[in-house]
Amino acid sequence: MDGGTIDIVVDRSFGLCGPPRCGRLWIACREDCDESGINVQQPNRTRRILIEGLTVDEMLALPDEHIAALVAVGPVVFSAGSAEILGQIRLRPGSLIVELAQIDGGGEGVLPVLWRLAERYARQRELDAVEWVVHAINCARPNLKLRRLLEKRGFEVRKVEGIGPAYYFRHEIDRASSGT
Q1: Measuring CA to CA, how many Å separate 141 from each of 101, 103, 145, 146?
Q2: Which CATH number fits domain 56-172: 3.30.1300, 3.40.630, 1.10.150, 3.90.1570?
Q3: Can you give the pTM of this predicted structure?
């Protein structure tokens, strides 16, 4: 802030204005308003969020060998939008397991993009479910916005076998849906 002006940045992915830790004003905003509060038409409100430089469609078109290599390597750090994420994917009969250990940055809708990617991948491979495990329980600097998002989506804290306490959600895949 300088000279009596107030900086406001709109984060439409969560219906709030202003980024965390920047000292700017946080205010609630409506989906159909801009920073000034004026009603605007938004033909495309979502920005393209890339995962390691690829779109969701490009990720889904990767050969099976690439996915098998990702499963085999175990935990990896990857970028999605402005976030750096430590995570891993595993496959077991009927399920894709997405485990997210640490998320630095983000806030522009990275998790919903990962959700859609996992759902579409599971549907393509005719899996029954995507199991989400998010280690956001004992963080040195907890992300309260992330916790609210997880709880709103139905995640519950539970002891996950072989992992310990984590946010967990089993998303049953409706194969009749297109998922796009």
Answers
A1: 14, 11, 12, 12
A2: 3.40.630
A3: 0.70
Mean pLDDT across the chain:
77
DSSP 8-class letter at 44: -
User: In terms of Cα–Cα distance, which of 44, 56, 53 is closest to 113?
Assistant: 56
Residue ranges of the chain that CATH labels 3.40.630: 56-172
Element (H, E) at 27: strand 27-28
Dihedral-angle region of residue 33 (phi above 0 means left; psi in -120 to 50 means alpha; beta otherwise): beta
Burial label, 149 (beta-carbon count in 10 A; 0-12, 13-18, 19+):
middle
Q: Which residue has the tokens 């690439």?
A: 66
Q: Over the stretch 43-72, which tens digit does the pLDDT of each residue have?
A: 344 468 999 999 999 999 999 899 889 889
